[in-house]
Design a protein that fits this description.
The complex is a heterodimer. Chain A is α/β, with parallel strands linked by helices. Chain A is built from 25 helices and 18 strands. Chain A folds into five domains: 107 residues, Glutaredoxin (3-Layer(aba) Sandwich); 211 residues, 3-Layer(aba) Sandwich (Rossmann fold); 87 residues, Ubiquitin-like (UB roll) (Roll); 96 residues, de novo design (two linked rop proteins) (Up-down Bundle), CATH 1.20.1440.230; 56 residues, Alpha-Beta Plaits. In chain A, strand 10 and strand 11 form a beta hairpin. Chain B is α+β, with helices and mostly antiparallel strands. Classes of the chains: A alpha/beta, B alpha+beta. The interface between A and B is large, with 64 and 50 residues.
């Protein structure tokens, strides 16, 4: 592949990365601006078409190697593809792409033959590679493993294969942030350029002042995608107005919400989009240094981001005098060390400064006094990744998408008890029902939907009766939830809501930084109350029961005090999982407290396993499968369970062919 | 493999030279680099970092113990991370964790006596689509159930015997 940034069109081009030219991006994507020559124009267009893979000379094979793809075995699939090509001495390009979002179908492998459209296949594990590739290269599409074909101008479509935009998972989506994810090679700077990349930055640097840019973002109605939902343009204006010798932009990629992975997918799949958004943001506020604060748990994302930064710097799009505009920007990666509270902006700043990540009271807001005491803007990955599209397509275009107060699209990580798990991007105002049942395909194994948890530990649960609300920042608050970063965890009838509340409280009390008392002490007391509710009958004394009833009386009040008196966002939202489950699933709490049973059968301490000696045939299967070695008995004789050893995993119930294991 | 204390001091010194004139904001990256190289933060490492940055060891411990990432015990040859994110929880990661503890005889943040296994609970690996997920030396295993655990452990052990030079730190 020719590197577009190293080859100038002809001898007349004077551009070097050291001596940049303001028209460089236009020149690459269209025609040279400094001289008129048709051959150069044609050469550029051909190269771009080739990079967009519209004109292939040999087959291209794409493997989705995001973290989820690799987790499903994409690495082995890649190796199998290489072996296949080597064994048959075939010439083809093997390209690593990011995640297209359909995690449930990973590993995903795409094949594109010259002059034909690109086709995606699902669950292509290493053993399936050779039969699949042999068939496709011979012009046959195996119907059972195909997902869909991509649209492509001037390319011949495969008959009887639906297009990606007709697939129920993709059809309702509107992809702005994820536009390139899963399509382009994240390690290739050229492919990003070929799809219009860095055009917005070049345009802004040439034509707009910082104030105009802030205005445009404000007009677009873009709001922070990290949870707070503060208007981005307005925030930028605060920093622009602040006088200082140094300002900073920080990209918050410390995706701490368990159940959310959109930031990871964007950085793994399309890192240059984030860099372009950051460069525009830094220009808008007058920052010359930017940080990406990213979780250390995302090694692949860090690797790809580092590479992208090096590429952009090599091409003169970061560093000194970017595109001859006089604007300087350096981007530095800071790895978060694993603290949920560092998602809070003042805590994040403390962490970059090398201190414990503890929030401080605001004001002064970071936009006035932030990192090292200088004006600092902190934006989430998704927010910044929206910026290039807003700049190049206009504020009006963006504000036409979405609802009255929430513009644009939102990326959601759909997981839990739903058929098609993955990453989706829909316009604001899409209903939860559409997301879970149309896009996600509903609940697997014939179970019924119970609730969906949105917004991570700060968010809440939404029950079935509110599935038709249109998602935006305000509507979610009316049902006691919040947008958060956009994790959607679907729960079915087997999920216990008390257990879920306990899970979140356990997480929050561990992650509380300990600075203010309501959060540090209050969350722990709430967890204790929930633990008492779900504790087993067998080791309960009289005072335990008393404590249990007393606790539940205080639970709601305690939650409200924590909410009102905590210092930072983490504490103020910490009781939300409890408050929302109490609001919508009061009956489940009552069943735990009064009847001492868990309706969902999830609170294992309230369950006891035993084997019915009449029904047991002594097949020994449960004893073999028991991971805790808690089942005893001789072959062909009735077995029994040792309660002290039993961990209550339920494996014996699942494997028993005679229905002899009883859980109650 | 055991590292002698002198070579350990040298290795830490090499990392420190990457941060000449380091200030307070270099502290966390420094600790991360040391942990990546040695697998954990030794007492010696903390003292050396303190001298380099002119900070008392108590401050460094204050920062290091605040963050979940830092370990003060060497990790095992097989470092197992169990994801306890929401999606994994809903799909049964609590039982996965419990089974692993029983199977290996160690708790979270502990290393087995023979130095083979160490267990860590992480908030979310970000592979929610494959829940419940565990990662062993950086390799992901999705859709884990209690029954699969003995097989997974056995498989990584076997793979290691076949390939004893297998890189243990990813």
């Amino acid at each position: 592949m020719i590197n577009t940034f190293e080859t100038n069109c002809c001898a007349q081009c004077q551009h070097t990365p050291q001596r940049p030219c303001p028209d460089r991006i236009d020149c690459l994507q269209d025609r040279p601006r400094c001289h008129e020559k048709e051959a150069c124009h044609r050469q550029r267009l051909e190269l771009m078409a080739q990079l967009r893979r519209e004109t292939l000379t040999r087959p291209a094979i794409f493997v989705g190697t995001g973290t989820c793809g690799l987790g499903a075995g994409a690495g082995k699939t890649m190796a199998a593809v290489r072996r296949f090509l080597a064994d048959r001495d075939l010439q083809a390009d093997l390209i690593e792409v990011g995640c297209i979002g359909l995690c449930a179908a990973e590993p995903i492998l795409d094949v594109q033959l010259p002059a034909r459209t690109r086709v995606s296949f699902q669950q292509v594990t290493e053993d399936k590679v050779s039969s699949l590739l042999a068939a496709v290269l011979a012009g046959q599409i195996p119907a059972d493993s195909v997902i869909a074909q991509h649209r492509g101008d001037g390319l011949e479509a495969w008959p009887d294969v639906w297009f990606l935009d007709e697939h129920p998972f993709f059809a309702p989506q509107q992809r702005i942030v994820l536009a390139n994810c899963g399509l382009i090679d994240p390690a290739s700077f050229d492919e990003y350029i070929a799809r219009g990349g860095y055009q917005a930055l070049a345009h802004v640097l040439r034509q707009n002042t910082s104030a105009e840019l802030c205005d445009r973002i404000e007009q677009s109605g873009l709001r922070g995608r990290g949870g707070g939902g503060f208007p981005t343009g307005e925030k930028w204006k605060f920093a622009l107005a602040a006088q200082a010798d140094q300002k900073y932009l920080i990209c918050n990629a410390d995706e701490g919400d368990p159940g959310a992975f959109m930031d990871r997918a964007v950085i793994e799949g399309d890192p240059h989009r984030l860099l372009e958004g950051m460069a525009i943001g830094a220009y808008a506020i007058g920052a010359t240094k930017a940080y990406v604060y990213i979780r250390a748990e995302y090694p692949l994302a860090i690797r790809r981001l580092k590479k992208a930064i090096a590429q952009a710097r090599g091409a003169g799009l970061l560093g000194e005098n970017i595109l001859d505009s006089g604007f300087h920007l350096d981007i530095v990666i800071k790895q978060g060390a694993g603290a949920f509270v560092c998602g809070e902006e003042t805590a994040l700043i403390q962490s970059i400064e090398g201190k414990r990540g503890m929030p401080r009271p605001r004001p002064p807001f970071p936009a006035v006094q932030g990192l090292f005491g200088k004006p600092t803007i902190i934006n989430n990955v998704e927010t910044l990744a929206n910026v290039p599209a807003i700049v190049s397509r206009g504020a009006e275009w963006f504000s036409a998408i979405g609802t009255a107060n929430s513009k644009g699209t939102k990326v959601f990580a759909l997981s839990g008890k739903v058929k098609l798990t993955g990453l989706i991007e829909v316009a604001m105002g899409t209903s939860l029902r559409q997301i879970i049942f149309d896009i996600g395909g509903g609940i697997p194994a014939g179970k019924s939907f119970k609730a969906v948890q949105i917004g991570g530990p700060s968010g809440g649960c939404i029950p079935a009766e509110h599935l038709d609300i249109e998602i935006d920042y305000e509507s979610l608050k009316t049902v006691g939830a919040m947008m958060g970063s956009g994790g959607l965890v679907v729960m079915d009838e087997d999920t216990c809501m008390v257990d879920l509340a306990k899970f979140f409280m356990d997480f929050i009390q561990r992650e509380s930084c300990g600075k203010c008392i309501p959060c540090r002490e209050g969350t722990r007391r709430m967890l204790e109350i929930l633990r008492r509710i779900t504790r087993a009958r067998r080791d309960e004394t009289g005072t335990d029961a008393l404590e249990r009833f007393k606790g539940i009386m205080y639970l709601q009040r305690l939650a409200e005090v924590i909410k009102d008196t905590s210092l930072c966002g983490l504490g103020q939202t910490a009781p939300n999982p409890v408050l929302s489950t109490l609001r919508w699933f009061h009956d489940e709490y009552e069943a735990h407290i009064y009847e001492r049973r868990c309706p969902a059968g999830a609170c294992r301490e309230l369950l006891e396993y035993r084997i019915d000696p009449q029904a047991c045939k002594g097949c020994t299967l449960c004893a073999k499968k028991c991971p805790a070695d808690a089942v005893r008995g001789v072959a062909k004789g009735p077995h029994y369970i040792i309660p002290e050893k039993c961990i209550g995993c339920g494996t014996c119930v699942q494997v028993c062919r005679f229905g002899a294991v009883i859980a109650e | 493999m055991p590292v002698s204390s002198t070579s350990m001091a040298d290795r830490i010194e090499t990392i420190l030279t990457r941060y000449p004139n380091g200030k307070r904001d270099a502290l966390i990256p420094l600790l991360q680099d040391i942990q990546e190289d040695l697998g954990f933060l030794s007492r010696q490492a903390v003292l050396q970092v303190g001298r380099h940055l002119n900070l008392p060891a108590s401050k460094i411990y204050g920062v290091a113990t605040f963050y979940n990432q830092f370990r003060f015990e060497p990790q095992g040859r097989f470092h197992i991370q169990v994801c306890r994110g929401t999606a994994c929880h809903v799909k049964g990661s609590a039982i996965v964790l419990e089974t692993l503890q029983q199977h290996l005889g160690i708790g979270p943040n502990q290393t087995s006596r023979d130095g083979q296994f160490s267990l860590e609970v992480v908030a979310c690996i970000g592979a929610c689509g494959l829940a419940p997920v565990i990662s062993i030396n950086g390799e992901f295993f999705g859709g884990v159930t209690p029954e699969k655990i003995p097989d997974i452990i056995e498989a990584v052990r076997r793979q290691d015997q076949k390939d004893p030079d297998h890189d243990q730190h990813f």
